[in-house]
Amino acid sequence: MFSVIIPLYNKEKYIADSIQSVLNQTFTEFELLIVDDNSTDSSVSIVKQFSDSRIRLIHRTERGFGGYAARNEGVRQAKFDYVCFLDADDSYRLDYLLKMRELIERFPFQTIFACGWTEKAGNILKTNAFYQYAERKGIHIIDNYFSHVAKNRPPLWTANFAVKLQVFKKIGMFPENKCKRGGDVETWMRLMLNNQMVWSPYIGAVYNKDVPDAVTKSVSDTEIPYVYHSVKQILTTISDAKSANDLKLYANFYAKMAILHAIVFNINKKEVLKGFFKDAEPKWFFAFKFLAIFPSLLLKPLFSIYRKLKLKFDKSDLG
Fold this sequence. Notes:
Blueprint: E1 2-8, H1 15-23, E2 30-36, H2 43-48, E3 55-59, H3 68-77, E4 82-85, E5 91-92, H4 96-106, E6 112-121, E7 124-127, H5 129-134, E8 140-142, H6 145-150, E9 161-164, H7 165-170, H8 183-192, E10 197-208, H9 214-218, H10 226-235, H11 241-264, H12 269-273, H13 282-291, H14 296-313
Parallel strand pairs: 1-2, 1-4, 2-3, 6-10
Antiparallel strand pairs: 4-9, 5-10, 6-7, 6-9, 8-10
Helix pairs in contact: 8-10, 10-11
C-alpha cells in the first residue's frame, strides 16, 4: 500500500487536477497526504471540497524552504510501506500506482521503483531523456545512476518513483530548511549511494513546466547548488576514484544551469562558480569563465534564444 504525499503552497489553479489524478488511480489501496505549507490563496478550500476518506489534510504552522519540510512531514505521518511524491501542479497517469505495485511484487528484494514521465510546456509534450535512452531495455535494474545523470539523462524525478518508507527515513529524508533549491537532487544522491533502482518504461506522470516557480525565478538560480556542499562531505568517505568522479559530475550537472543563470543575469558570478568541481570538467569551468567576460546586456537575448531552442529540440529540458 502507498502513502502519496503532496506538498501544497499557493497552487489553487492546479491542486484539484493533481488530487484527481491520484483519486483516479486503478490501484486504490493508498492514502493521500496533502501537507499545506501555509498557503495564502484558496488552495486549502479546494482540497476540502474533496470528500474521499483516503485524503488527509495536514497543516504546517511555519512555511519551509522549497517544500522539503512539508514532504518530510508527510513522510513522518505516512502509514503505509511505500511512499510516493507528487507536486501540487503535476499529475499521475491512471495506472501509475498499479505499475509501481507490479514492480514491487516482481522485485521483492529491491526498495526503489521508478518509471518514465512526460514533460509538458505549452503545446510541447515529450518524454524525458532517460526514457528515450532506456525504453528499449524494458524493465531493468539501474546500478550506475550517477553516470546517467552526468550524461544528461536523470532517471529520477519527484513524481516518478516509489520508495520503501523505512529506507527513505534511513537516508535522512529531504534537507529540511537548509536550501531553497537542489534539496531534491541532493536527496536522490543520498538515496542512490547505497541502493539500486528498478526502472520501467511505463509513462507514469506528467511534469507541468508551464507553472511559474517563484523560487526558481527569484533567488535560487544564482545560489551555489546545495548538492555541491553535500558531495564535498561525502567525498571524504569515498576512496574509489571513479565513484568520487561520478559524484563530482553529478554535482556539476545540476550546477551548470545555476552558473549559467548567474553569468547571464550578472548576479553573484564568482561565488556561484565556486560550486563547480573544476577538476572533473575543466573545459566547462573555463568556458564559464570566458562567458563571464561578456556583459549581461548581450547575454540575455542570446540566453532567451537558447532556452527556446533547447525546449523545442533537446531531449530533456532541465533548465
